[in-house]
Amino acid sequence: MSNRPNLSHGRGYLAIPGPSVMPEAVLQAMHRSAPNIYAGELVDMMPGIMADLKRVARTKHHATIYIGNGHAAWEAALSNVIAPGDRVLVPATGRFGYGFGEMAEGIGADVQLIDFGKSSPMDLGRIAQALADDKDHQIKAVLAVHVDTSSSVRNDIKGLRDVLDAAGHPALLMVDCIASLGCDQFEMDDWGVDVMVTGCQKGLMVPPGCSFVFFNDRAQAVREAMPRVSRYWDWTPRSTATEFWQYFNGTAPTHHLYGLRVALDMIHDEGIEQVWARHKVLARAIWAACDAWSAEGDLRLNIADPSVRSCAVTSLRLGDNDGTRLRNWVERELGLTLGIGLGMAEPDDPARDAFFRLGHMGHVNGQMIMGLLGGMQAGMSGLGIAHGRGALDAAAEVIAGH
Ligand SMILES: *Cc1c(COP(=O)(O)O)cnc(C)c1O
Predict the structure, then answer these.
(1) Is the confidence at residue 2, as pLDDT, over 90?
(2) H-only helix segments in 82-228
(3) Which family does it belong to (predicted)?
(4) Maximum distance among all alpha carbons in the chain?
(5) DSSP string covering 382-402, please?
(6) Fewer C-beta within 10 Å: the chain N or C terminus?
């Protein structure tokens, strides 16, 4: 046994839900010496980058860039429209719903949480009731997460807008699309979203470090009525920049912009509808394999109803500590890294080692997904974890028949 070859040599696959796999073309575009930030190519690239970001977000309104991660985008968006003491309604469907609410709490908001648990989408009826109960319109914003990356549920954002409209409630609709943008269909303007936040390291295929806030004129009116917004987070000068430094309130994330330029070109060359469709087929292949595996043993998809599953991330569980065992095995033996379970069990609960996640967002294709599934099957066989037969055949049929 000691001379058993290790099969992890070769190109690895980081199949976690962000940071996602980056295209070589993005990495190559970033590999350059420091560019001039006062004139020339990079400065000239900015209007096109801003326009192409809005195309991905499906909005004609305003876009801003922040040097920071998704948490920074949360803080940026909230800082522009939420003052201390303002009430926000947080319909949470997993760890990232709580996170958005905690960020609001941190800037002094009065957070009204509706917790829909860890394996269900928002129940729009309960949200309608909360809005109806808010007779004097104390709720200033609803903070929703499109795809909660911990549970892998996908929420109905258009439905949430309809509920706000039916209630005649003026609250802003603020949506976290950090996991979903460039993966699952999202329509900022058509769905009536007032503020949307995302990051660059998931569907946008760029290393972590930039995030984005999009907002419409309704949100801008709320911004203008704010008693005070900190200079750094203020979205106004960033979204109306006439000088290069104003987009970033300081030095630009130079190399990220080169990477982002290429990533946006790749998305628009493929076509955003085609990007969504690709993620959908690959997700269906994963679900087909999981359904076959679940026929025996303990493997379960966290979200039972396929119509509310994300196409970017899949949250799963096995029995006992088999989730962690499987992750460790496929990483060590195959060079395949699966995502940890996040927010599904308390840190001291042994059940946390049952959970794990698959990231399939951004720069992923059919052979990667077949490799991911084949790796998981090898791991379950290697570890003696019971599983149903025919999973790889089922996945291959989805891909062959798409
Ligand atoms: C990844 C993620 C975040 C947090 O982003 P960071 O870059 O880790 O700060 C927030 N919300 C969702 C839905 C995410 O997927």
Answers:
(1) no
(2) 95-106, 124-133, 157-167, 217-224
(3) Belongs to the class-V pyridoxal-phosphate-dependent aminotransferase family.
(4) 73
(5) HHT----S-HHHHHHHHHHT-
(6) N
Q: What mean pLDDT is predicted for residues 142-151? A: 98
- The answer, yes or no, to whether any atom of ligand 1 lies below 6 A from the CB of 153, is no
Has residue 1 been placed in a domain? no
**CA of 69, closest atom in ligand 1:** 7
The answer to whether residue 299 is domain-embedded is yes
Residue 231 structural domain: 32-269
Last residue of a domain, one of 269, 292, 317: 269
Claim to verify: residue 246 and residue 301 sit in the same structural domain: no
On whether 332 is known to bind a ligand per the annotation, the reply is no
* Within a domain: 115: yes
Q: Whose CA is nearest to atom 2 of ligand 1?
A: 178
Residue 348 Cα to ligand 1 midpoint, Å, equals 23
Is the CB of 71 within 6 Å of ligand 1? yes
> Each residue of 287-302: pLDDT tens digit?
999 999 999 999 999 9
- Based on the fold, state whether residues 277 and 264 are members of the same structural domain: no
Quick one: 323 and 202 in the same domain? no
Within-domain flag for 152 = yes
List pLDDT tens digits, range 246-288: 999 999 999 999 999 999 999 999 999 999 999 999 999 999 9
pLDDT value of position 3: 83
The verdict on whether omega for the bond into residue 91 sits within 30 degrees of 0, i.e. cis, is no
Does one domain contain both 258 and 276?
A: no
pLDDT score for 1:
55
C-alpha triplet 271, 49, 180: angle, nearest 5°: 50
Q: Do 378 and 258 belong together in one domain?
A: no
- For atom 9 of ligand 1, which residue has the closest CA? 70
Residues 174, 289 within the same domain = no
Structure tokens that stand for 380 in this block? 């379950």
Nearest ligand 1 atom to alpha carbon 201? 7
Task: Report how far ligand 1's centroid is from the alpha carbon of 71 (Å).
Answer: 7
Looking up residue 43, the CATH number of its domain turns out to be 3.40.640.10
Q: What pLDDT digit, counting tens, does each position of 82-126 carry?
A: 999 999 999 999 999 999 999 999 999 999 999 999 999 999 999
Which helix (H) or strand (E) is 16 found in, with range? none
- Residue 139 region by backbone torsions, left for phi larger than 0, else alpha for psi between -120 and 50, else beta: beta
